[in-house]
Design goal:
Blueprint lengths: L1 H20 L4 H56 L38
């Protein structure tokens, strides 16, 4: 009994779905006309934003990328001539015991971080 009731409700819902989206009433026609008017109004604005994205944003991103790369290269060159000095403060790399894989954490990078083995 329950299964037949559920199946009939699902079947009627599916039938209503097709009817709902193919409505030809005056209200549906007014909605379609409004939707078409919005599309016609938004077309030129969308085209303008597309042109802005292509001709302004992309070159600006390229210029910012080139600038960032040049600054980074300058910084690397500067760091070769003036390396950082390691000051051993008592609270840096403080460990009650070593990790089971060694002294450094999982995020250790030997080109950036000072090694605990250097202490």
């Amino acid at each position: 009994m329950y299964r037949a009731l559920v199946n009939s409700q699902v079947l009627s819902a599916v039938k209503r779905t097709g009817v709902r989206f193919s409505s030809t009433s005056a209200e549906g026609a007014a909605f379609a006309a409004q939707r078409d008017a919005v599309k016609a109004h938004a077309g030129p604005a969308a085209e303008t934003w597309k042109k802005i994205s292509i001709f302004v944003v992309i070159p600006a991103l390229i210029a910012a990328s080139v600038n960032t790369y040049n600054l980074y290269e300058h910084h690397v060159e500067h760091m070769k001539h003036h390396p950082r000095e390691y000051v051993k403060y008592p609270y840096i790399n403080y460990r009650a015991r070593d990790f089971f894989w060694g002294k450094e954490s999982l995020f250790f990078n030997p080109s950036v971080n000072f090694s605990a083995a250097d202490e």
